[in-house]
Specification:
heterodimer, A: three-stranded antiparallel β-sheet, 3 strands, B: mainly alpha, three-stranded mixed β-sheet, two-stranded antiparallel sheet, 16 helices
Chain lengths: ~475, ~525
């Protein structure tokens, strides 16, 4: 019985004007967005390669004469533009590019790299603030289409008087809802799948994607999450249509709910973020605070320092103390910076709590986690640059230290020799992206909340429809 | 007759479920947005007051051995609660530093205190009007003609000796009046909220700007009404007309502006790239010139007391008074020459940057011209121009900052206090203690080490000299010229926004004509 119902619904839908139109819009928009994406991606890739080339230049100069070049070395750990940002870019363009690492520890060991110079003054465009990627298309366009296709699922049958007829058969009411739901979901899911596939082929032809299993897997999971998200809005439309007698009222109600969920709540979160950040000092002030902390540490040590002139033993004792002082100074400065960075991340995380109220935000979060882009990407980079710092110091201590083994080692031009190093053996700093396991783990919480929302709504629809009296 | 029709339309609109639901949502959402944004505004205002007071206080007592950082705070405008434009994101203050003279080309602070918060989009009243009220306009007009066609009442109405334009006008005016009433209610509630909240002052400029924004919003919504009437007179069924209008809504409000913006972002990005290359060349040129400059200055054989750690103290730079006169004179000559160089390069870099900005502004103008084809974008542009919170106002502000930078530089030049020269005007004579210390250092020949162009002292007394904190004298610079931000009157703003408003008016006219003709050509016999 269920199969027959679904077949009937599908046949009706496939022949209908609006399903044809919406599939066409979805398909064409995905193609248009992939065309825009290719140009954008290549541009970003070019920028990234410039950073990598600068890193190589710096490291080569350092390998040639480690001790004298140490203070001039600074390495860029920038976010590598992922091909997956086609799925979800999550404003990676607007975020800081990554981190600047200076092995000599001055002025900071690790610090933000702001957006590309020159764009800063013009970055604040007044438009609606979306980045056109697939997750935006699904989040706004497809959810809207889902509502537009489902708002009269039940009311139309009520208005036509066919509902009573259908229910007079020995059909379970749940089957009726299930058939409607499945057919609408199919008529939206098919164009999305087709669009994704053709976008994938298009990108491959223009040389953006490598045909990797990873990319395919993340695309599949993206599709799954998108389908669940669309299902939520289909259910929302059906729910509204079970609530009211007329299609008009159901349309208005479901559109208003759509606006609230997709447009208003995520935006209010944005404004809250502005307010939450007001307690933070500016980057200039943070630098001053860090300098003050470092100076206080230095002053504590200054008293202990023996004079520079004297015997060799005194000199080496002085150097050791100096290195300890620099280490502490460096640590104090970096701690201040780190604590504010953590606060910045934490304030973003706390806003995500509001996001639980909007499936649209949950969807955006899960999509960006699957693609491994946005804040998630930046946070992962932070840990990898920390690890690199340890690797680099350890390597220098082993290979090039002028100090006696076992003594305190701090990486500075006094503690390493100027003998050339083998460039190929130096640890390199490069963003390797986020492994699929990590992405999946990040996605799961918001994805499961999304599923719970869907199940809840589905039960609500069933309950409401079962108890309603068609007379 | 038209009055009766209008009354009927008004009543049926205002008592409908969709109208009341949309109105309630709009008012609730805009109240929430007003509450959030006015809190944000108050915070910014407090920061502005605090910063300004602090800086005015600093100006009266500047230690001579220090480096002046001039801070200019941008006053938040009350109207940014309604149309926030770029004001919240673009930062709250500019800094003119004398140690490293550069002309500010962007502001610091603001929401951008947290670089990560850029990932959240915003919703001010202007956005709520675009999102919620456009939808209301569509819902009010989609069945205005096609609904009557379906019910069969249109033929009945046309059978009366009633000119068709009157029908059109009554439909339009009925919808317009109800939507304007809703808009007015929303504005009144938000304004009342501001009026009754603490510390908030409503002045004449605010009310004038609010009036302008209200008028533009009505103009924009009237576009949508005409569009709705046009589509509904072209289609037979109300449902088809609704689908077409909703498709237009989602395409022209969300998808097309985003896609257009993204493709222009790429081009702005590309133009910025050439700036990057040029700035590297300029930096290399500066390094070369600097080394030439210092080579040309005659060297004086003397020593100086400098310590890298000590330079960082006092939050900036300190040049201890325990130095021989010749070293100071030498330093003064070097700074004088260096100062000119620094100023020239600041102007050159500014030239590059403003050329870059101009190219991105012209790109953005081209984008805006394209976006003007989309009513919602031209509306947003118009309200930003009228509330003086958008990109244009930011550009004006930065241009004024450039003029101010020159003013300040020549003022400080007059006080003989530009750049590093700040370190010199100390008490004219050395104190007894200082004289003794200098004499002791002069005797201790063992501690003089060649470093750079001069001998550096790191001997027995260096610890004592470095820990010596001279009594600081304070300068009073409270007569420094004050920054006058560009202020536009409501009339001027209207003139600037006029082209965009003309576009909206043109839309209204074209859509009205189209709706009129399509209704004129409508033949009821064909439907039956």
């Amino acid at each position: 019985m269920l199969a027959e119902l679904i077949k009937k619904e599908l046949q009706e839908d496939v022949q209908s004007y609006r399903v044809f139109l919406s599939s066409l819009i979805v398909f064409l928009s995905i193609l248009a967005f992939s065309a825009i994406f290719v140009g954008h991606y290549q541009l970003r890739r070019g920028y990234h390669e410039r950073y990598l080339a600068a890193n190589n230049r710096n490291l080569q100069a350092f390998a040639a004469s480690p001790s004298s070049a140490l203070n001039d070395v600074s390495l860029f750990l920038v976010m590598r533009p992922e091909p997956e940002s086609f799925l979800s870019d999550s404003h990676e363009d607007d975020l800081p590019r990554g981190f600047l690492y200076s092995p000599s520890g001055w002025p900071f060991r690790v610090n933000f790299i702001s957006r590309a110079a020159g764009i800063e003054g013009t970055a604040n465009d007044s438009e609606l603030g979306f980045s056109p990627d697939l997750s935006f298309l699904v989040q706004v366009l497809m959810s809207f289409l889902a509502v537009a296709l489902s708002f009269n699922a039940v009311t139309k049958e009520k208005e036509d008087g066919t509902l009573g007829l259908i229910l007079s058969y020995s059909t379970k009411r749940a089957y009726f809802i299930l058939a409607k739901f499945t057919s609408i979901l199919c008529s939206l899911g098919l164009p999305l799948a087709l669009g994704l596939l053709s976008g994938y082929i298009f990108l491959n032809l223009s040389g953006v994607f490598l045909l990797s299993a990873e990319a395919l897997i993340s695309m599949l999971i993206f599709f799954l999450v998108s389908i669940i998200y669309i299902a939520f809005f289909v259910l929302l439309g059906i729910f509204c249509s079970t609530l009211y007698q007329s299609s008009d009222k159901s349309l208005v109600m479901s559109l208003l709910l759509w606006i609230l969920i997709v447009l208003i709540i995520p935006r209010s979160a944005g404004m809250l973020s502005g307010i939450k950040n007001l307690g933070l000092p500016t980057s200039q002030e943070i630098k001053q605070l860090a300098d003050r902390a470092a100076n206080e540490t230095a002053q504590r040590f200054e008293r202990l320092l023996p004079p520079n002139s004297g015997t060799d033993i005194q000199k080496s004792r002085r150097l050791e103390l100096l290195m300890k002082m620099w280490h502490e100074e460096d640590k104090a400065r970096q701690d201040v910076l780190d604590s504010y960075l953590q606060k910045k991340f934490a304030s973003m995380e706390s806003i995500k709590k509001i996001h639980i109220f909007s499936p649209a935000s949950l969807y955006e979060h899960s999509a960006s986690s699957i693609a491994g882009t946005g804040l998630f990407h930046l946070r992962t980079l932070w840990t990898s640059v920390r690890r690199y710092n340890d690797d680099f110091t350890l390597f220098m201590q082993k290979e090039n230290s002028t100090l006696e083994p076992g003594s305190f080692f701090y990486l500075c031009s006094e503690s390493i020799s100027d003998e050339p190093l083998d460039f190929s053996s130096l640890p390199k700093l490069e963003d390797s992206g986020i492994p699929p396991g990590g992405r999946l783990r990040e996605t799961l919480p918001s994805f499961s909340i999304l599923i719970i929302y869907c199940l809840f709504l589905f039960t609500a629809v069933l309950f409401r429809f079962k108890t309603c009296d068609i007379r | 007759m038209i009055r009766a029709l209008l009354k009927k339309e008004l009543l049926s609109n205002m008592l409908s479920f969709k109208f009341i639901a949309c109105l309630l949502v709009a008012i609730l959402v805009s109240l929430q947005s007003t509450a959030l944004l006015s809190r944000d505004y108050l915070d910014r205002l407090r920061e502005y007051d605090k910063g300004n007071a602090q800086f005015a206080d600093e100006l009266t007592r500047i230690p001579v051995f220090s480096c002046l950082n001039i801070k200019i705070f941008k006053k938040p405008s009350t109207i940014s609660i309604f149309v926030s434009g770029t004001e919240r994101e673009s930062g709250s203050f500019a800094q003119i530093s004398l140690a490293n003279p550069s002309i500010p080309t962007s502001l610091e602070g603001g929401v951008l205190k947290n670089e990560l918060s850029v990932i959240f989009p915003k919703a001010d009243v202007a956005h709520i009007i675009i999102i919620v009220f456009s939808l209301l306009a569509i819902l009010l007009s989609y069945n205005s003609v096609s609904g009557e066609k379906e019910n069969g009442t249109l033929s009945l109405m046309l059978s009366h000796s009633l000119p068709r334009y009157k029908i059109l006008l009554s439909k339009y005016l009925g919808a317009l009046v109800s939507i304007v009433v809703a808009l007015a209610l929303q504005f009144i509630f938000s304004t009342l909220f501001i009026f009754f909240s603490k510390d908030m002052a409503i002045d004449g400029t605010f009310l004038k700007s609010l009036g302008l924004i209200f008028a533009t919003s009505s103009l924009y919504l009237s576009c949508f009404l005409f569009l709705g009437i046009l589509v509904s007179s072209l289609t037979k069924r109300a449902f088809t007309s609704l689908l077409i209008l909703l498709g237009y809504y989602i395409l022209f409000i969300f998808i097309i502006p985003a896609a257009l913006k993204s493709s222009f972002d790429d081009r702005i990005f590309r133009s910025a790239r050439s700036y990057d290359m040029n700035i590297e060349k300029l930096a290399a040129e500066k390094d070369r010139d600097e080394s030439n400059l210092y080579r040309d200055i005659p060297q004086v054989k003397t020593w100086s007391l400098r310590d890298v750690n000590n330079m960082r103290l006092y939050g900036g730079l300190i040049f201890s008074r325990v130095n021989p006169r010749e070293a100071l004179d030498n330093q003064a000559r070097m700074t004088e020459a260096g100062t000119k160089l620094e100023r020239d390069y600041a102007e050159k870099i500014y030239g590059l940057r403003s050329a870059d900005m101009r190219s991105s502004v012209s790109l953005r103008q081209r984008m805006n011209r394209l976006l003007a084809l989309v009513p919602s974008s031209s509306y947003l542009l118009a309200v930003e121009l009228m509330s003086d919170t958008g990109n244009d106002s930011m550009t004006r502000y930065l241009e004024r900052l450039h003029i101010y930078w020159r003013q300040v530089m020549s003022y400080l030049e007059g006080r003989n206090a530009f750049g590093f020269r700040f370190f010199f005007p100390g008490p004219p004579d050395l104190t007894l203690y200082e004289k003794e210390l200098v004499a002791k250092i002069n005797e201790d020949k063992a501690g003089l080490l060649p470093r750079g162009r001069m001998l550096s002292y790191v001997g027995k007394y260096s610890h004592e000299a470095q820990n010596y904190r001279p009594q600081l004298e304070h300068l009073d610079l409270s007569d420094m010229p004050a920054f006058v931000p560009p202020a536009l009157k409501a009339g001027d703003r209207l003139v600037i926004a006029l082209p965009v408003i003309t576009v909206l008016l043109g839309y209204n006219f074209v859509l009205f004509m189209a709706a009129y003709f399509s209704l004129q050509r409508y033949d009821p016999r064909r439907d039956s």
